[in-house]
TrEMBL record:
Domain Fe-S metabolism associated: 81-208
Keywords, in A-Z order: Signal
Keyword Signal: yes
Keyword Mitochondrion part of the UniProt annotation: no
PANTHER family named in the record: PTHR46230, SUFE-LIKE PROTEIN 1, CHLOROPLASTIC_MITOCHONDRIAL (PTHR46230:SF3)
Signal peptide (UniProt feature, chain positions): 1-19
A GO BP annotation: iron-sulfur cluster assembly
InterPro entries with a match to the protein in the record: BolA (IPR002634), BolA-like_sf (IPR036065), Fe-S_metab-assoc_dom (IPR003808)
Protein name as annotated: SufE-like protein
């Protein structure tokens, strides 16, 4: 009697299924099995062939991955390596749906406007807590634990991946995660442009949540020692301009996610009449903008990382304008 095969795992989670294929004219079953804590090149191993068929198990990592520049958490790096080893888009899609089914349920108090992720095709809510790191007797190291939900299954799977990959990391470690890991994991191949932008927005909101949680804890410590300096008021609204959809979208996105203490967006399109790209977005003619923004989210980030964060948040909007000049500062730099 044949023993049942052990389930293949992705970061400790059974994969959704096997990909059937044909090999050398015979019937085969292709599967993947990522090596723990390593990045491996493509390899194939075959068992002894019978006269009628063969069964081949092989790794499908096409190229050796270099993830060091992405500053991933250990858990996220393991999942990126595992996802990149899945040989086909359909199985990656199934794996995301499987992870969605395993995401713990949340209570209704999480589904509030403050926790909603903007710019997603589905409705997504996410929040976090800051807790002492397990095993840290001095309780000096604080780590983030996320929880959330979405009404779309694929989006919920993406959220589950982020939650699983970022939980247990410090706020500083989470800020350093490069969103380009979605390409290294080959997940972007599974997503439409809209869902890809939604994924980036989820990561940006989760980074902001971690930063807010860390600053909230620091503020509580300062208050206990006798009070803290008064913080600058956060910009929560702006005056929309009729006939300027790009202006309104940029302002809404940055104010909602970055919660700046100061933001000024100037439409300089008229100064670039006749230049390439000066036609701008449809009939509005919006093509060139200058942005000055001050936000806590930029604290500790290099100039390049600040610009990358803004580009990531604006997503498809950046493809509809010709240029965006950026001056981004933290409150301490003002």
């Amino acid at each position: 009697m044949r023993r049942p095969s052990k389930p293949l795992l992705i970061a400790g989670i059974p994969i959704a299924g096997l990909a059937l294929s044909s090999y050398n004219g015979g019937s085969t079953v292709s599967a993947w099995s990522p090596a723990p804590h390593t990045t491996t090149a493509t390899s194939r191993r075959s068992h002894k062939q019978s006269s009628s068929s063969s069964v081949i198990l092989h790794s499908a990592i096409e190229d050796e991955l270099d993830l060091s520049s992405l500053h991933l958490t250990p858990q996220l790096e393991m999942m990126v390596t595992a996802f990149s080893s899945i040989p086909d888009e359909k199985t990656r899609h199934k794996q995301l749906l499987y992870m969605a089914s395993k995401l713990p349920a949340v209570t209704d108090d999480v589904r509030i406007s403050e926790n909603k992720v903007p710019g997603c095709l589905s409705t997504v809510h996410v929040d976090c807590t800051l807790e002492p790191k397990e095993g840290d007797d001095d309780q000096e190291t604080m780590v983030v634990n996320y929880f959330g939900d979405s009404d779309g299954l694929l989006t919920k799977g993406l959220l589950a991946l982020l939650i699983r990959g970022l939980n247990g990391a410090t706020p500083e470690e989470i800020q350093n995660v490069d969103p380009q890991f979605i390409q290294a994991a080959k997940i972007s191949q599974t997503l439409t442009p809209g869902r890809n932008n939604g994924f980036l927005n989820m990561l940006a909101v989760m980074k902001k949540k971690a930063l807010d949680a860390a600053e909230g804890g620091a503020a509580a410590d300062v208050d206990a020692d006798g009070g803290a300096e008064e913080q600058s008021a956060i910009v929560t609204s702006f005056e929309e301009i009729d006939g300027k959809p790009m202006y309104n979208i940029i302002m809404t996105t940055l104010i909602t996610i970055l919660k700046p203490t100061s933001i000024t967006l100037t439409d300089n399109s008229s100064q670039h009449a006749g230049h390439a790209g000066s036609k701008g977005w449809e009939e509005s003619g919006e093509s060139h903008f200058a942005l000055e923004i001050v936000a806590e989210a930029f604290e500790g980030l290099s100039l390049v990382k600040r610009h990358q964060l803004i580009y990531m948040l604006l997503g498809e909007t950046m493809q509809k304008i010709h240029a965006l000049e950026i001056k981004a500062k933290s409150p301490a730099e003002v």
